TrEMBL record:
Pfam families xrefs: YchJ_M-like
Transmembrane segments: none
Protein name: YchJ family metal-binding protein
InterPro entries from the UniProt entry: NTF2-like_dom_sf, YchJ-like_M
Superkingdom of source: Bacteria
Organism placement in taxonomy: Bacteria, Pseudomonadati, Pseudomonadota, Gammaproteobacteria, Cellvibrionales
SUPFAM superfamilies, per database record: NTF2-like (SSF54427)
Domain YchJ-like middle NTF2-like intervals: 29-118
């Protein structure tokens, strides 16, 4: 059975974020990186979350950070720049009988030629 990617791209996991999570490739856009980070949360891949986080802002992460049951991702808007990019998204998770969403405008920067997650912004700059 074909496993669809958790990031809701509609593509098979093996041909989408798993290319990045398994280290076969590295995302070349901030949006692709953000999608792969959602898939890392959804599949419990801590090493990938650390690797894709800017070292200046990466918190101590452990298995307790992966208890949320992420259900789907909705990319609202993304703006790709040369060294900085911004992606606004809603990450949905199961809560009781329903679903709630984390709504975030995230900042990404190019670090050592790779896109990494810096952190949330309070608004579009
Ligand atoms: Zn994906």
């Amino acid at each position: 059975m074909l496993q669809l990617c958790p990031c809701c791209s509609g593509k098979p996991f093996a041909q989408c974020c798993n290319l990045y999570l398994s280290g076969q490739a590295y995302p070349n856009t901030a949006e692709a990186l953000m999608r792969s980070r959602f898939s890392a949360y959804a599949t419990g891949n801590l090493p990938y979350l650390r690797k894709s986080w800017h070292p200046d802002t990466c918190p101590e992460l452990d298995a307790d950070d992966l208890t949320t049951q992420w259900s789907r991702l909705e990319v609202i808007k993304s703006k790709q720049g040369l060294k900085k990019s911004i992606v606004e998204f809603k990450a949905w998770y199961r809560e009781g009988d329903g679903e709630s969403a984390l709504h975030e405008i995230s900042l990404f920067k190019l670090y050592k030629k790779r896109w990494v997650y810096v952190g949330p912004l309070s608004d579009w700059p």
